[in-house]
């Protein structure tokens, strides 16, 4: 299962929606921003304070203006700003106002914290992971991505040169750590796509990680350290609940930095919840890790949110819970109910162009559609989760699929995905003639049993 980084991150946290019809100026705001848009646009702002993650979503006015205020437990911090799948960076501090003007891929800063914001924006633009995610249709060329990474580090360090003292030292550490984290990702893709042996280089990078450094948490390096650490590899646990309880205690003993502990507690705890443990196992887990979570109440809150989001809301035999708006390549809008009203068995592929496993299923889907060609009892449909409509259209132009293609309307698509408890894609749905689920998580087109499953569904009257 592959999940889009920004969406996955936001759905795991508590979100608050704030509307700002006009840009107020009578008080000091952390951020006063403008985006070059002609309609209200959603913005997500993320920051870390000592290992606690805070996320806010807000909506601009029709002219693209927004203001952002949030109590900063740490007094000052970097913030990550998501707009339509693109990441920007800024720096905020209590009692000051950072002003950001976003046009296309560029961000200009004025007001307070301008040097810090210019650095942090260059830093995020250099290393934001989605820009290093290869297209499934293009061969992965490590040297091309490594050149891009090196150029990004060079630009980030040039932006850091305007800082001094502790801020310059911190900025330099952040750049080098994020560079290492992204380099590990590229080396892993080199091994996966091109069967290259990158283990020695990866081992050298990981061996140099300081697990108690803030930059290890802020850039994701802490997770690479953990994956190679003895506390993980030498586990003697005999089952998953025992493993997670053991690891919490081991992390607490191995690390000093409480923020870094929180980061690993959250990562491991979310993995535990995603296994959908029983209520008894969850109660036992919480009892065992109480000494750790007592110092990390926000982590426990977020784990409970994940637990609730993972709960199965719709089961086989249930009706489709919502009726999302679907948009065709030509721009025509319809509803999922319009498809279901045709009285056929419906096999739905939920996918996105940025999802490698999704795209790898497409050739199998093509062959599946061909095998059922002429069978009037079943309808095949693909629905994209892309935010970038142009990327979706270009993919369709290249592939020229023979079955109906749609892209979700964002608001009603998000509502549908939440109602279905779908946290990752690809996802395949099989729906009967009455609009009830035969399978809420159906076999993929590449599954050897898919033909017999569809034949059986069609045969039932």
Provide keyphrases for this structure:
461 residues; alpha+beta; five-stranded mixed sheet; 18 helices; 45% helix; disordered N terminus
- Domain count: the total is 4
Strand order of the largest sheet: 11-10-14-13-12-15-16
Q: Separation of termini?
A: 33 Å
CATH superfamily of the largest domain: Glutaredoxin
Give me the CATH architecture of the largest domain, please.
3-Layer(aba) Sandwich
Low-confidence parts lasting 5 or more residues at pLDDT below 50? 1-25
What is the molecular shape?
A: globular
What does this protein look like?
By secondary structure, this protein is an alpha+beta fold. It folds into 4 domains: 1-122, Sandwich (Immunoglobulin-like); 134-219, no CATH class; 230-310, no CATH class; 325-459, 3-Layer(aba) Sandwich (Glutaredoxin), CATH 3.40.30. 45% of the residues lie in helices and 19% in strands. The protein contains 18 helices and 16 strands. It has helices at residues 5-11, 114-127, 142-160, 165-194, 199-207, 214-219, 221-228, 230-233, 240-254, 258-274, 279-288, 290-293, 297-310, 336-340, 356-371, 389-399, 410-419, 450-459, and strands at residues 17-19, 31-35, 42-49, 52-59, 65-68, 76-83, 86-93, 98-103, 106-111, 325-327, 333-335, 345-351, 378-384, 405-408, 427-431, 437-439. The strands form 3 sheets. A 7-stranded mixed beta sheet has the order 11-10-14-13-12-15-16. Strands 1-4-3-6-7 form a 5-stranded mixed beta sheet. Strands 5-2-8-9 form a 4-stranded mixed beta sheet, covered by helices on one side. A hairpin with a 2-residue loop joins strand 3 and strand 4. The longest helix is centred in the middle third of the chain and has 30 residues, at 165-194. The protein is globular and about 75 Å long. It starts with a helix and ends with a helix.
């Amino acid at each position: 299962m592959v999940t889009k980084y920004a969406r996955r991150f936001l759905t795991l946290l508590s979100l608050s929606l704030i509307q700002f019809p006009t840009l107020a100026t009578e008080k000091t705001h952390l951020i006063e921003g403008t985006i070059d848009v002609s309609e209200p646009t959603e913005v997500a702002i993320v920051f870390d304070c000592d290992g606690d993650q805070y996320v806010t979503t807000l909506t601009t006015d029709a002219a693209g203006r927004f203001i952002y205020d949030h109590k900063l437990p740490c007094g000052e911090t970097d913030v990550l700003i998501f707009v339509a799948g693109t990441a920007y960076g800024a720096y905020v501090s209590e009692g000051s106002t950072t002003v950001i003007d976003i046009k296309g891929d560029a961000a200009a800063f004025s007001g307070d914290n301008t040097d810090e914001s210019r650095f942090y924006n260059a830093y995020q633009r250099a290393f934001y992971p989605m820009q290093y995610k290869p297209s499934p249709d293009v061969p992965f060329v490590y040297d091309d991505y490594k050149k891009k990474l090196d150029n990004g580090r060079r630009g980030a360090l040039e932006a850091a040169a305007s800082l001094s003292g502790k801020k310059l030292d911190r900025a330099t550490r952040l750049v080098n750590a994020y560079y290492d984290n992204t380099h590990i990702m590229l080396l892993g893709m080199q091994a996966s796509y091109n069967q290259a042996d990158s283990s020695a280089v990866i081992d050298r990078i990981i061996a140099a990680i300081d697990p108690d450094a803030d930059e290890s948490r802020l850039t994701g390096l802490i997770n690479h350290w953990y994956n190679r650490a003895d506390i993980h590899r030498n586990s003697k646990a005999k089952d998953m609940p025992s493993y997670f309880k053991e690891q919490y205690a081991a992390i607490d003993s191995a690390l000093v930095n409480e923020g870094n502990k929180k980061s690993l507690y959250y990562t491991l705890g979310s993995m535990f919840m995603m296994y959908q443990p029983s209520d008894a196992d969850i109660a036992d887990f919480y009892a065992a890790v109480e000494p750790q979570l007592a110092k990390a109440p926000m982590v426990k809150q977020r784990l409970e949110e994940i637990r609730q989001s993972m709960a199965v809301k719709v089961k086989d035999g249930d009706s489709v819970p919502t009726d999302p708006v679907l948009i065709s390549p030509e721009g025509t809008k319809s509803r999922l109910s319009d498809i279901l009203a045709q009285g056929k068995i419906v096999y739905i592929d939920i996918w996105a162009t940025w999802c490698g496993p999704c795209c790898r299923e497409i050739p199998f889907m093509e062959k599946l559609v061909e095998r059922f060609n002429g069978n009037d009892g079943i309808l095949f449909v693909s629905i994209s989760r892309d935010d970038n409509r142009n990327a979706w259209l270009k993919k369709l132009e290249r592939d020229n699929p023979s079955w109906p293609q749609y892209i979700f309307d964002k608001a009603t698509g998000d509502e549908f995905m939440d109602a279905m408890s779908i946290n990752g894609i690809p996802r395949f749905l099989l729906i009967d003639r009455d609009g009830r689920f035969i399978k809420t998580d159906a076999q993929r087109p590449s599954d050897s049993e898919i033909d017999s499953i569809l034949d059986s569904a069609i045969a039932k009257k």
